[in-house]
Write a structure and sequence with these properties.
The chain is built from 16 helices and 13 strands. The protein is of the alpha/beta class. The protein folds into three domains: 4-92, Arc Repressor Mutant, subunit A (Orthogonal Bundle); 142-380, Type I PLP-dependent aspartate aminotransferase-like (Major domain) (Aspartate Aminotransferase, domain 2, 3-Layer(aba) Sandwich), CATH 3.40.640; 385-491, Aspartate Aminotransferase, domain 1. The strands form three sheets. An eight-stranded mixed beta sheet has the order 3-10-9-8-7-4-5-6, sandwiched between helices. It has a three-stranded antiparallel beta sheet with strand order 11-13-12, with helices on one face. The chain has a two-stranded antiparallel ribbon with strand order 1-2. Helix 2 packs across helix 4, helix 7 (144-155) crosses helix 13 (368-379) and helix 14 (382-408) runs parallel beside helix 16 (476-491). The protein is globular and about 85 Å long.
């Protein structure tokens, strides 16, 4: 049986024309390792097997292996075989590389200004799960057995067309299941035809930016607000305008004030991210009226509205709109698991056909089995049951975190009043650098996000965003203790 390494070396040997066979084999393997085509840690074929693959003597292979081992490229493990070394000889030299000028790389390739801006403000962490990482659910409670059972059942009778690209903004069973669910759970007014399935909210917003805006158009974003919105909009050449958030979410300028109308208004009215503010009915109506008068479109990101604890659900803004000027964004990243990469938009009738065509042209819809499995998961009631279970679990964990903050620091440090979502704000005094404090906690293995990085301008509040979803209630006090222990000396200065 041929191996990938054997195929690679056979190709190199066929191209080499000078030197002895042993030297050509040595050069081929060394160059493959140096170029990264045979990665560090790769187990090489046994000398007898490789000799048979290449049609050479075993002594030729053994000589090449021994020479490369003496030079540090290979290592042997008793009873396991021969491996490419985890650290190559060249690594010591590359570690002393000269500094690279900002905006440039060692190969002279520069990024665009928008690309540099994106990387400089990137909010992604090396860690995307655990305490106290915000924005992620506890994926350990996802009912995988139920999901696999549905998936296996569907796979036995999977229509052949689901193996190709989706041309209609998603698969009809999921669009129907979502329309039925959203009408009941979120008071969204829609038909299945208005739903466009996407691979994440970022893709939804990227499509809207490309299809509804021209470079230089103004887009209102919340201040503070989710940097992911800003990143997607700005990489598309749009001007993001920060609009202050208060206790009722996005504020509106006085009607007589002269403002340049935005093309899009991006809001999180049911649970503002990150402050947790809920937009009241009066302001919702005022926002709808203002957008209609300006000819602006509202993009409503309803990212975690299912998780409200002890309060009545807040209906979606889209359900109040009479003019068809609200585009509703939803996701399964918070209710199921982020790796599902399945989100959706509810579009106004006038945009549906055109944006579905554009989505197909730009991104090529697919994931047929996943979408059909999700449709059955919703239709059979598993989704609603899972949300109910997680709502109760997250409510307990939120209360445990609030209790830990009160007992270890005091009431004044609870910086978020809303009983909803997957995170809360730990308020910090303005003189504390929350970015530096968060970085220090990360070195101790505690993952948070500083509140100040959610502002485009000067931060009006300092604090930490604490995601409590992945910390069990009984472990919350002890898990929070390192934060309090690190903070108390700063408060005594």
């Amino acid at each position: 049986m041929r191996t990938l390494v054997g195929d690679l070396l056979a190709c190199h040997l066929g191209q080499a024309t000078s030197g002895t066979l042993g030297k050509r084999l040595y050069d081929a393997l060394q160059q493959s390792i140096q170029a990264g085509m045979v990665a560090p840690g790769t187990r090489l074929p046994a000398s007898r097997d490789l000799a048979k693959e290449l049609g050479v003597s075993r002594n030729t292979v053994m000589a090449a292996y021994e020479q490369l081992q003496s030079e540090g490229y290979l290592s042997t493990r008793a009873g396991s075989g021969t491996f490419v070394s985890a650290v190559l000889p060249e690594s010591d030299l590359s570690a002393i590389a000269p500094p690279v000028a900002e905006g440039r790389s060692t190969d002279g390739i520069t990024l665009s200004r928008r690309g540099e801006q994106l990387l400089n403000r990137a909010g992604a962490s090396q860690r995307q799960w655990g305490a106290f990482m915000p924005g992620v659910p506890d994926v350990r409670h996802f009912p995988q057995k139920t999901w696999r059972k549905i998936s296996r059942r569907l796979n036995l009778r999977l229509p052949v067309e689901t193996l190709s690209y989706s041309q209609h903004g998603g698969y009809a069973p999921l669009q129907q299941a979502l329309a039925d669910y959203l009408r009941v759970a979120r008071s969204v007014k829609c038909t299945p035809e208005q739903i466009l399935i996407t691979s994440g909210t970022h893709q939804s917003l990227d499509l809207l930016a490309k299809m509804l805006c021209n470079p230089g158009d103004r887009v209102w974003v919340e201040e503070p607000g989710y940097w992911g919105h800003r990143s997607v909009l700005e990489i598309n050449g749009l001007e993001t305008v920060p609009v202050t958030v208060d206790d009722e979410g996005l504020t509106l300028p006085a009607e007589e004030a002269h403002v340049s109308p935005p093309r899009l208004i991006c809001v999180t009215p049911s649970h503002q991210y990150p402050t947790g503010a809920v937009m009241g009915l009066a302001r919702r109506k005022a926002l709808l009226d203002r957008a209609q008068a300006w000819g602006s479109l509202i993009v409503e990101d309803d990212y975690d509205s299912e998780f409200r604890f002890g309060e009545n659900p807040v209906p979606a803004l889209q359900g109040l709109a009479q003019a068809g000027n609200v585009i509703y964004l939803g996701t399964f990243s918070k209710t199921l698991y982020p790796g599902l990469r399945t989100s959706y938009m509810v579009l106004p009738d006038s945009l549906t056909a055109r944006l579905k065509i554009a989505h197909s042209e730009l991104y090529r819809g697919g994931y047929g089995l996943t979408q059909l499995t999700l449709a059955e998961f919703i239709r059979e009631g598993h989704y609603a049951a899972h949300v109910r279970r997680m709502r109760q679990l997250y409510s307990q964990r939120r209360e445990a975190l609030v209790t830990a903050i009160r007992q270890q620091l005091g009431e004044a440090f609870i910086g978020q009043e809303s009983h909803a979502g997957l995170h809360l704000i730990l308020a910090l005094p303005q003189e504390i650098d929350d970015v530096a404090f968060s970085a220090g906690l990360e070195q101790a293995g505690v993952w948070t996000r500083p509140l100040s990085v959610y502002y485009m301008g000067v931060a009006k509040r300092r604090g930490l965003i604490l995601g409590y979803a992945c910390v069990e209630a009984e472990a919350m006090a002890e898990t929070f203790r390192p934060i309090a222990r690190a903070l108390l000396p700063l408060l005594q200065r």
